[in-house]
Amino acid sequence: MSGALFALALTLGGGFGCRQSSATLDGGSRSALGSSATTPGGNGKSCGHAACGDHFFVDAVPPGDCMAGALCQVGVKLVALDDFHVNDEFPYRFVADPKPLVQFVGTDPAGQGVFSKAAGDWRKDDPKSGAMAVGFFLSTPGSYSISGTFKLSVCSGAQCLLEQRPVTATFMAQ
Hints:
Blueprint: H1 2-11, E1 51-53, E2 56-61, E3 71-80, E4 85-86, E5 93-96, E6 102-104, E7 114-116, E8 122-126, E9 129-138, E10 142-155, E11 160-173
Antiparallel strand pairs: 1-2, 2-3, 3-9, 4-10, 5-7, 5-10, 6-9, 8-9, 10-11
């Protein structure tokens, strides 16, 4: 249902704050840690981050020391570029892809694999950046990739951009 509301807001031109009239929603390239997304515009160059847009980038920060059976966290960090800033009124959200041997611990009413501003998982670090905490337990040691779709928004004085990008963090757990 919340996906339908998000789509409806885009259709109706809802800018989720910043009082701007234009919104953009487009896809991106999936990225694993150690590789990176390509730059916008399809030139094929690596942008050096998990996801990139013309006025932002997203980094997927893997857990430092992740042990099987213990709570681990991936950080999904948004950084606005140029004269853009994070949109304070946007309902930031990360929807994790289901994975075998991974139990997500999101408290959003939409399910344990959903992390959101409403559930307290989003924190604004400063006007140009913020991060989503994605918590989970792993069943066994090994190599893991935590991936999902991050819904985000950045604004300038002239426009607000609404985006959703696939993001992946790959790491080893002991």
